[in-house]
């Protein structure tokens, strides 16, 4: 499973049920996608996954025929759509140069009752679009117009703030070193899309040296697409239409946004769940990264093209010399690992990115693929080059409890295990029939070293959204003495791994592989868990920043609530004839008490505003700059409570009024200290508010 969801973005206009419902359902869908987007949203990493929404496929292998595939799909998908509240699905399978089957299930438009037609219904395939972008880049490489290892600035003319040169090899293998960006990945329906502007306005920081760290990047793929546009001299969408879609025979597919009239009438509606309002057409602000709309049969033709089949029974052109799409040598180059141990180090012993393709090998067979998610659509495409087979599936709803994501994963697993079972050892991995070469004592020691808390390298590092990482850490714990259990984030469900070769782990009762890169002292630096995904340990400072911020806020909330409580007590005492007001000795304390109270109130209001900002950004709503600045200003006022609380402690001690008040003041001081540390560590006061 490849988590390639496009990032959150500004809110589209309201749907047919009104703005309030659209915002509610959008936020619900965004939460369901959290484990896939950045491994930073949603529930705590230790939470158990949602229950399966459909039965497991049969364990016995079956003949890959149209009749058997159709029967398997018929008994698997319809009940899963119903129980998971998924509106519709589309599937295509290719085999030996032909479209073996193409199927539609459920509804493309729930309100109209329009059924999914695999020939005519377009689905938004999300990041599967990146394979079309990679194909376009490789056409230019094949023609000698660009080079894989040349700084892309020579082709684009863009002066991007990079510390290290970035090449097309880096971009296509998701190792340019960029942090994630949320803003600009989607734009409001009806707004214009300008690829160049999207790339130069607030580009992401380069936080890793290129080639060293797998960190999936929508921005990087969009930059590769702009190379195509800059070198060819035509808009990216036009280049793809003329040089890939039309020659391959994908006549019902397009990167255009909005779609041409003759296709717009046939695009499926996207839904959070099948009984909620449709989401407006999602306008991708960086088209090469995820703007393709396509039918299942057109995606079958694309798979045939990458399996190097010419026009014929498959119903479309292929990628051989006869069509001029790509040569067989270039197709093979795209599937091979793009980088080696010279830059990746120990990660090179596990799955590696090709030039666009993820290595998804399993059952001893070579498999390449790419997944894609928008807010509503969830797709995946896999090829078995040696077996001349391809599988594509897409859903137009997330479903209840992220049912579409689980169903997609289980369909991919089920298809592979049913029709393409174990066929020998896969290069670069350990044969599951062996027990590996690591002795039990070393396995146990390494498992203890690996245990800890991690966050994805695909995340936010220099912006206020860095808070997203600590919100859902990925935890690794030792089980059975020498195995390691990872919470969701590495996969949709908790997974257990055992070391088979030094620092290479295989999933127990599964097919995933983990590789570990350590430093000279044996400490974990990086865990590679997918071709373009890796984890890094959460630093000690980041580990305590969020709990510190929360703990400090609790203390400050008590401080604020103490004001009205104290006022009530004073009034009651006055009515009973007790002395009114503070004693004369309390005079020096009045000002610092008032300042700490006001600062505590500002801190609380600031965090409430930040919560609104983060939920809005991740729920695809446009958050005004003024709101973010207000959150920062309130946070800054809260931080000023730290020196005020020091003043208060000193003043309380000087009054010599006993130990209770100085102790309470000291607790408030600790609360402000924890709040300040968390706010600074999580970049809530950074002058740069881009995201």
Automatic annotation (TrEMBL):
The chain crosses the membrane at residues 544-569, 598-619, 631-651, 663-685. It comes from the Bacteria. Residues 73-403 form the Beta-lactamase-related domain. The keyword GTP-binding does not apply. One of its GO terms (molecular function) is hydrolase activity. This is Serine hydrolase. It comes from Dietzia cercidiphylli. Keywords: Hydrolase, Membrane, Transmembrane, Transmembrane helix. The keyword Metal-binding does not apply. Residues 1-22 are annotated as: Disordered. The lineage of its organism: Bacteria, Bacillati, Actinomycetota, Actinomycetes, Mycobacteriales. Pfam families: Beta-lactamase. InterPro entries: AmpC-like, Beta-lactam-related, Beta-lactam/transpept-like.
């Amino acid at each position: 499973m490849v988590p390639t969801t496009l990032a959150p973005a500004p809110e589209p206009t309201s749907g047919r049920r009104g703005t309030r419902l659209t915002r509610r359902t959008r936020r619900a869908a965004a939460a369901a996608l959290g484990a896939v987007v950045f491994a930073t949203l949603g529930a705590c990493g230790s939470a158990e996954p949602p229950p399966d929404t459909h039965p497991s496929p049969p364990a016995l292998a079956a003949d890959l025929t149209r009749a058997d595939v159709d029967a398997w799909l018929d008994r698997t998908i319809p009940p899963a759509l119903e129980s998971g509240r998924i509106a519709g699905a589309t599937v295509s399978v290719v085999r030996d140069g032909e479209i073996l089957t193409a199927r539609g299930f459920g509804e493309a438009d729930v309100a109209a009752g329009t059924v999914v037609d695999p020939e005519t219904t377009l689905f938004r395939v999300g990041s599967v679009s990146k394979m079309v972008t990679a194909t376009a880049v490789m056409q230019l490489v094949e023609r000698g117009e660009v080079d894989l290892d040349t700084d892309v600035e020579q082709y684009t003319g863009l002066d991007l703030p990079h510390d290290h040169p970035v090449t097309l090899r880096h971009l296509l293998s998701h190792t340019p070193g960029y942090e994630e960006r949320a803003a600009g990945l989607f734009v409001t329906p009806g707004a214009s899309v300008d690829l160049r502007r999207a790339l130069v306005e607030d580009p992401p920081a380069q936080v890793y040296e290129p080639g060293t760290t797998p960190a999936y990047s929508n921005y990087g793929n969009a930059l590769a697409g702009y190379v195509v546009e800059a070198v060819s001299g035509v808009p990216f969408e036009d280049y793809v239409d003329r040089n890939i879609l039309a020659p391959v025979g994908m006549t019902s597919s397009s990167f255009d946004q909005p779609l041409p009239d003759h296709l717009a009438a046939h695009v499926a509606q996207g839904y959070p769940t099948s009984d909620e309002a449709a989401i407006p057409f999602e306008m991708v602000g960086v088209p090469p990264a995820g703007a393709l709309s396509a039918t299942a049969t057109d995606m079958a033709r694309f798979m045939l093209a990458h399996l190097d089949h010419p026009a014929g029974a498959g119903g479309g052109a292929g990628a051989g010399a006869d069509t001029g799409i790509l040569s067989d040598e270039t197709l093979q180059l795209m599937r091979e690992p793009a980088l080696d141990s010279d830059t990746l180090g120990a990660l090179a012993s596990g799955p590696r990115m090709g030039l666009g393709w993820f290595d998804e090998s399993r059952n001893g067979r070579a498999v390449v693929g790419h997944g894609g998610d928008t807010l509503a659509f969830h797709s995946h495409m896999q090829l078995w080059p040696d077996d001349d087979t391809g599988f594509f599936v897409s859903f137009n709803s997330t479903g209840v409890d992220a049912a579409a994501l689980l169903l997609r994963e289980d369909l991919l697993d089920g298809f592979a295990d049913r029709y393409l079972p174990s066929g020998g050892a896969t290069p670069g991995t350990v044969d599951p029939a062996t027990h590996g070469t690591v002795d039990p004592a070393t396995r146990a020691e390494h498992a203890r070293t690996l245990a800890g808390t991690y966050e994805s390298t695909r995340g936010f590092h220099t912006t206020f959204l860095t808070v997203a990482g600590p919100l859902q850490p990925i935890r690794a714990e030792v089980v059975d003495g020498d195995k390691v259990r990872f919470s969701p984030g590495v996969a949709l469900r908790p997974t257990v791994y055992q070391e088979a070769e030094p620092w290479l782990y295989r999933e127990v009762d599964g097919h995933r592989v983990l590789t570990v890169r350590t430093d000279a002292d044996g400490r974990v630096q990086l865990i590679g868990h997918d071709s373009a995904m890796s984890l890094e340990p959460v630093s000690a400072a980041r580990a305590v920043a969020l709990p510190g911020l929360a703990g400090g806020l609790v203390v400050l909330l008590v401080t604020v609530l103490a004001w009205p409580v104290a006022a009530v007590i004073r009034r009651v005492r006055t009515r009973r004839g007790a002395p009114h007001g503070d004693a004369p000795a309390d005079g020096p304390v009045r000002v610092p008490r008032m300042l700490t109270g006001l600062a505590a109130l500002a801190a609380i209001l600031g965090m409430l505003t930040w919560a609104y900002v983060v939920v809005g950004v991740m729920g695809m709503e446009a958050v005004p700059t003024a709101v973010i600045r207000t959150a920062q200003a309130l946070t800054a006022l809260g931080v000023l409570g730290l020196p005020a609380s020091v003043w208060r402690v000193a003043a309380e001690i000087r009054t010599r009024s006993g130990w209770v008040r100085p102790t309470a003041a000291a607790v408030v001081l600790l609360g402000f200290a924890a709040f300040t540390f968390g706010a600074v560590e999580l970049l809530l006061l950074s002058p740069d508010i881009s995201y």
